[in-house]
Amino acid sequence: MPPSLDGSQGLNRARGGVRQIAADTDVEAVRLWLAEYAGSPHTLRSYRKEAVRLLIWATRVLGKPLSSLTREDLLAYEAFLANPSIEWADPTLPRRGGGRRLFEGPLSPRSVRQAQGILSGLFGYLVAAGYLAGNPLALRRRRGDPKASRRASVERYLDRELWQSVLDFIETLPQGTRRECQHYERVRWLFRLLYGASLRVSEAAHAKTSDLSQRRGKWWLHVVGKGGGAGDVPLSDELMVDWARYRRFHGLSTIPSSLETSPLVMSVTGRTDRFLTPTAIYLVVKEVFRRVAVALEAVDLSGAATLRRASTHWLRHTSATHQADDGNDIRYIQKNLRHASIETTAIYLHAEDDLRHEKTTGR
Questions:
Q1: Residues 244 and 174 grouped into a single domain
Q2: Which of 109, 184, 187, 194 shows its CA 20 to 30 Å from the CA of 125?
Q3: How many C-beta neighbours within 10 Å does residue 130 have?
């Protein structure tokens, strides 16, 4: 970028004081912020996408560096995210590379809020580092009811009948060739792992055999999750039988070793030296949900519509909801999901709503 756009002379640059970073251009500063998330690939990709979009929009549309953006500029950007012009979402452009399209289309209100939250974190970091004088997004008015938002998020789960439909469909996957059998066994295990251990997609992608341990005859999975928080998740005997089956199919030992670093979910051919990316797992799950939805359309339109919206995180919500419905103590569910607050876990309790509905409509 030319000096007028690289941020070295940005109007919002901090003057005086002690700098905590050596970066002197916006790109350098953003790269340093992203480096803080190197250990969380899924978060890194999401944050990088939002930073790139803003940098390109600011320099191309406004002719301003990121470090000169004002609150008015960020309001204009918020409106742009909700309705990007066609050249930003041109379907003829490639999905990757320097000339790629940066949008698939307008962002939903929820996605706009998420993007603004990420960028506010970026500006806040640069202010704390002594690079910027202020955070223009700190003035942003909070919209929406957080409780309503949490309530909406927990509705992203599968009831027991729909979850059983998914499991039943997996059993119909073709197994005529070696490759088809490999795909079937991996899908079968992946869905059971995500549900049985209440894992986030990144946690499933990074889980390895040495994370398994047995204490007092019970199996546990050590997980390092969101924000670097660590915890142990209990695994059922049934899930361990499924894991042994998956390993046996690939000719591997079914006795976990604390020295074995092979992934819990391997490549389709069973390579023990290659971990799947969170994106790869996400796409596998989405494709299965899509195919189940197609199969259900003739008999269950509502279920099919639910599955078309479902993703990997729905399996985590489904696991928590089913645990709550089964009467599992909320404190145990909180530990299983590694929630910092029990209030977050409480939104999975549907039994009281079911009882209220029954008493209200039973007559």
A1: yes
A2: 109
A3: 15
Q: How far apart are CA 177 and CA 182, in angstroms?
A: 9
Please give the Cα distance from 78 to 113 (Å, whole number): 9
Q: What span, in angstroms and rounded, lies between the C-alpha atoms of 49 and 55?
A: 10
* Cβ burial 9-33 (10 Å sphere, 16+ → b, else e): ebebbbeeeeeeeebebbbebbebb
Q: Is 8 within the bounds of a domain?
A: no
H-helix or E-strand containing 186? helix 178-196
Q: Are 303 and 230 in contact (CB under 8 A)?
A: no
Residues 285 and 182 in one domain: yes
Alpha-carbon span 15 to 9, nearest angstrom: 10
pLDDT over 80 (residue 355): no
Task: Provide the percentage of residues in the chain whose pLDDT is more than 90.
Answer: 59
Domain that holds residue 127: 26-143
Mean local confidence (pLDDT), 163-188: 96
Section 254-268 average pLDDT: 91
Q: Last residue of a domain, which of 84, 118, 143?
A: 143
pLDDT of residue 205: 92
Q: DSSP 3-state helix, strand, coil percentages of the chain (rounded to 5)? A: 55, 5, 40
245 to 54, 203, 238: CA distances (angstroms): 47, 21, 11
Q: Looking at the 3D structure of the chain, how many domains does it have?
A: 2
- Taking alpha carbons only, the member of 186, 201, 194 closest to residue 278 is 201
Q: How far apart are CA 163 and CA 334, in angstroms?
A: 22
φ/ψ of 70, rounded to 5, equals: -110, 175
C-alpha distance from residue 169 to each of 86, 289, 296 (Å): 39, 10, 10
